[in-house]
Amino acid sequence: MRRHPRRGEADHDVSEAPAVPTARRAEVGRRIGLGLMFGLWKPRVLGAWKVPATGPVILAVNHSHNIDGPMVMGVAPRPTHFLIKKEAFIGPLDPFLLAIGQVKVDRTIADRTAITQALGVLADGGVLGIFPEGTRGQGDFASLRAGLSYFAVRGGAPIVPVAVLGSTERRGRLTKELPPLRSRVDVVFGDPFEAGDGSGRRTRKALDEATVRIQKQLTAHLENARRLTGR
Predict the structure, then answer these.
(1) What domains lie within the chain, and their CATH numbers?
(2) pLDDT score of 28 more than 80
């Protein structure tokens, strides 16, 4: 409760910490994503049991289709809060994405609100979804941003690599950013791993070293997922 200033005191504004998205809201998003993804495509989910049942977890997802986030959100065994670029929060999508527990992030700055909310998700023992490549591209984990290592080390959360592999066929596509409708989409969850070296260091050098380790793990998982699914 805010204290009213005494006579003679300046009435300074008291900034409040941003609210942490709740797992209950993310569960609503999970159910919507589940129905939508199975209605439009044919997801095949492999290794979902590898996601720890409790405690903070980061899902590191490759990003080659616009459905990667909703797909993982729907088929993941736990409610997931994705870090999503603010440009996606347009029109009615803005209140909708916030209502289902997703985190809006401004990629042009060090977005303190998004960082606080994401760390809050992990502190509450929740699941944070991240596209470590930053933007949609080849989806091969070739270029990773340092944000993933920061959240993993700072939040004390294991990383579960996730490969989303869709059809490359052009027929049946609504747009080039989407797999053909009713085509099979494979979602392969990998083994969880720790990003840090066990020292607890959070220096720039430590985070850079963690990023290198993460990239090796994610690339290896993607290669294994492609062999497993024949993609």
Answers:
(1) 23-229 (3.40.1130.10)
(2) yes
